[in-house]
């Protein structure tokens, strides 16, 4: 039978708790569908940094690239200055492993409360393809005359055509495979960022016309995208966008699907090793209380199985999650689910 080697990075705060539930459900799926998962844990995160002074060993990406996939809990520690771990671990791994896609489904499961008026699961079901290794996240920058009244800070948004094209190609292929509305929307800001999003827009229409004539192409400015994600989310099928806009609109998307307790994502390198993670943070104040919602981690695990080619197992986990949200959980928030973290993991695992 097939077997997969999974690197597990439980990380900080409530990360380890949700990772345990994720592994519980993944193992149930492996048993049911006849494959094997071999886990190896890595302790990258805030505690290790505070203990050793090292954010991430230089060998980390090399080590991790030998696995079939990476399963991550959360990075972020209350005793470490914001930015150090996020940039030094999470972003560094994304960049070094060239995970150039951040795939973030925005899907409202049955029974999950949404802040969007009169909207249900039939309206909120689309996917954001966020470019994950370029743009403002990796453009050069710096200060001049730091600390003086004449100080200047620069942070540049840089994209080259190859970066843009590989992301667009993934998005078109994904839209085609998804086969729902066959509509890919580019989210940009061509009216102000007239260089970067001009490049995106030209590449989008050129590639679409040439290789994907069957896929409809839409364009929205990022500000309008936010508006329509609230007012008419049913318009969307797949949205593709740059790194910074993708970061912002996927938090908006997450809250419309019930919040960070349920929002899953994958950092994908289609030619290499990918890393799956709940899109929320480490929620340190809930650490050890057994109240955090593990569904985002569990759903990220399902995305990982889908990516590994275990599509049936992924669908079974998704169906189990939906049964639990529809019939069991009262709310998605920490401490408001009506069940503990462990119990939610058990509920989903039983159903798988
Ligand atoms: C995310 C997070 C990260 C990002 C942070 C923690 C660096 O917000 O995964 O969306 O900005 O990409
Ligand atoms: Mn974010």
TrEMBL record:
Limits of the Isopropylmalate dehydrogenase-like domain: 5-348
Cofactor requirement: Mg(2+); Mn(2+)
Keyword Nucleus: no
Pfam families: Iso_dh
Broadest EC class assigned to this enzyme: oxidoreductase
SMART domains, per the entry: Iso_dh
Entry-linked InterPro entries: ICDH/IPMDH (IPR050501), IsoCit/isopropylmalate_DH_CS (IPR019818), IsoPropMal-DH-like_dom (IPR024084)
GO molecular function, one term: 3-isopropylmalate dehydrogenase activity
Keywords carried by this UniProt record: Manganese, Metal-binding, NAD, Oxidoreductase
NCBIfam families, per database record: PRK03437.1
Protein name, entry field: 3-isopropylmalate dehydrogenase
The organism of origin for this protein: Mariniphaga sediminis
């Amino acid at each position: 039978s097939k077997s997969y080697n999974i690197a597990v990075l439980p990380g900080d705060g409530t990360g380890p708790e949700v990772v345990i539930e994720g592994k519980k459900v993944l193992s149930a799926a492996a048993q049911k569908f006849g494959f094997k998962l071999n886990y190896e844990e890595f302790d990258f995160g805030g505690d290790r940094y505070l203990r050793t002074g090292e954010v991430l060993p230089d060998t980390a990406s090399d080590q991790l690239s030998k696995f079939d996939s990476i399963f991550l809990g959360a990075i972020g520690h209350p005793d470490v200055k914001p930015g150090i771990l996020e940039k030094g671990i999470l972003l560094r791994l994304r960049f070094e492993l060239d995970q150039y896609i951040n795939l973030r489904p925005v899907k409202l499961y049955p029974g999950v409360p949404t802040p969007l008026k009169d909207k249900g699961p039939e309206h909120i079901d689309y996917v954001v393809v966020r470019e994950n290794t370029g743009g403002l996240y990796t453009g050069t920058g710096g200060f001049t005359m730091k600390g003086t009244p004449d100080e200047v800070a620069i942070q540049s948004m840089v994209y080259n055509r190859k970066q843009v094209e590989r992301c667009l190609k993934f998005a078109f292929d994904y839209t085609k495979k998804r086969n729902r509305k066959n509509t890919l929307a580019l989210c940009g800001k061509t009216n102000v960022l007239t260089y970067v999003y001009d490049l995106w827009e030209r590449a989008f229409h050129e590639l679409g016309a040439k290789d994907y004539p069957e896929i409809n192409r839409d364009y929205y400015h990022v500000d309008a995208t936010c508006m329509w994600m609230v007012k008419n989310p049913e318009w969307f099928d797949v949205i593709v966008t740059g790194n910074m806009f993708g970061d912002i609109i996927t938090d908006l998307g997450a809250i419309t699907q019930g919040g960070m307790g349920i929002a899953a994502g994958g950092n994908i390198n289609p030619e290499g090793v990918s890393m799956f993670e709940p899109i929320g943070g480490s929620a340190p104040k809930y650490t050890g209380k057994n109240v955090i919602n593990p569904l985002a981690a569990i759903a990220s695990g399902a995305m990982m199985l889908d990516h590994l080619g275990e599509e049936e197992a992924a669908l079974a986990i998704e169906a189990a999650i939906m049964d639990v949200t529809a019939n069991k959980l009262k709310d998605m928030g920490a401490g408001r689910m009506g069940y503990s973290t462990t119990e939610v993991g058990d509920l989903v695992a039983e159903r798988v």
